[in-house]
């Protein structure tokens, strides 16, 4: 609930908002895996508070974002040279290399959400964790700054927003915001042959609200933001990646030039 309170100050006190969200991210991922010593990729990393929080938890943090400033901030903050400007829909990392692939509030901002999700699984080592949280379109915050007018349709929501504020919204449906549903995410997660769904629950709501996710239709409105946690398993195509450590083995020690692969290199 502290997170919902933090949302109210996103515009007026971004430092507080992002620190709260970053601390929640570390707590959330830390519930499912040990962060100390882990190699964590944060796709759509956003602000430096995430770099600080993951590094403070002992993780080796890699930021990836389409936004150069985000990546520069992360590099400055935790000094890892692995952080990189790039797209979550085409990650510049070799298969099965990372302990954790994390994407917070990014899925609804990409044109091909399934492709981003597939990429998260691809770069995660067997035994590693994929953690993705996103706001679905029918969530009360689905239209982002145009909410709740998005319930009237994206175009009308923009008109209402412009009339009320005198300027265009930062997020535009079809270019920086794409409607995605809770059912879409669950269907994708349940259909992966090389990952098991460990958890699916409303990220910002109390524990008892996890039942919402089981209610078709209702879940699209009340979940608010869906957290999906998957553990990577061994697929046929991974056999050659596992080496002597196999499932659960840590590959963090293998960070090196091969971890970061520039596709056009
Ligand atoms: C709403 S912010 C989320 C930032 C942070 N993860 C959080 O939870 O607050 C979305 C971020 O995703 C980035 N982004 C948008 N499209 C992307 C893409 N295709 N690949 C990687 N990052 C992307 C944006 O630049 C922005 O930093």
Question: Would you kindly provide a written description of the structure presented here, covering whatever features stand out?
Answer:
With 265 residues, this protein is of the alpha/beta class. It contains 9 helices and 7 strands. The chain has a 7-stranded mixed beta sheet, sandwiched between helices. α2 (14-30) packs parallel to α3 and α3 packs parallel to α4. The chain is globular and about 50 Å long. The N and C termini lie far apart (45 Å). Bound molecules: S-adenosylmethionine (SAM).
Number of helices: 9
**Order of SSEs, N→C?**
HHEHEHEEHEHHEHEH
Rg from Cα: 18 Å
Strand-residue proportion: 15-25%
Number of strands: 7
Structural class: alpha/beta
CATH class of the largest domain: Alpha Beta
Helix percent reads: 25-40%
């Amino acid at each position: 609930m502290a997170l919902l309170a933090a949302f109210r100050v996103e515009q007026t006190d971004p430092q507080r908002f992002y620190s709260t969200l970053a601390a929640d991210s570390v707590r959330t991922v830390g519930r499912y895996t040990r962060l100390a010593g882990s190699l964590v990729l944060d796709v759509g990393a956003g602000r430096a508070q995430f770099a600080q929080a993951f590094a403070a938890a002992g993780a080796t943090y890699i930021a990836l974002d389409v936004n150069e400033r985000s990546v520069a901030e992360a590099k400055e903050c935790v000094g890892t040279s692995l952080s990189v400007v790039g797209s979550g829909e085409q990650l510049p990392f070799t298969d099965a290399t990372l302990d954790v692939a994390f994407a917070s509030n990014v899925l609804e901002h990409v044109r091909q959400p399934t492709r981003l999700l597939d990429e998260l699984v691809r770069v995660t080592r067997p035994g590693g964790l994929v953690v993705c949280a996103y706001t679905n379109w029918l969530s009360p915050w689905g239209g982002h700054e145009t909410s709740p007018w998005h319930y009237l349709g994206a175009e009308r929501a923009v008109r209402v927003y412009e009339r009320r504020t005198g300027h265009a919204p930062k997020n535009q449906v079809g270019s920086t915001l794409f409607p995605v549903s809770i059912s879409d995410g669950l269907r994708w997660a349940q259909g992966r042959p090389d990952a098991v769904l460990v958890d699916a629950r409303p990220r910002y709501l109390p524990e008892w609200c996890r039942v919402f996710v089981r209610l078709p239709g209702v879940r699209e409105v009340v979940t608010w933001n869906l957290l999906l946690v998957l553990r990577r398993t061994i697929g046929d195509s991974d056999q050659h990646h596992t080496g002597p450590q196999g499932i659960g083995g840590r590959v963090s020690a293998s960070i090196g030039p091969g971890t970061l692969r520039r596709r056009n290199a």
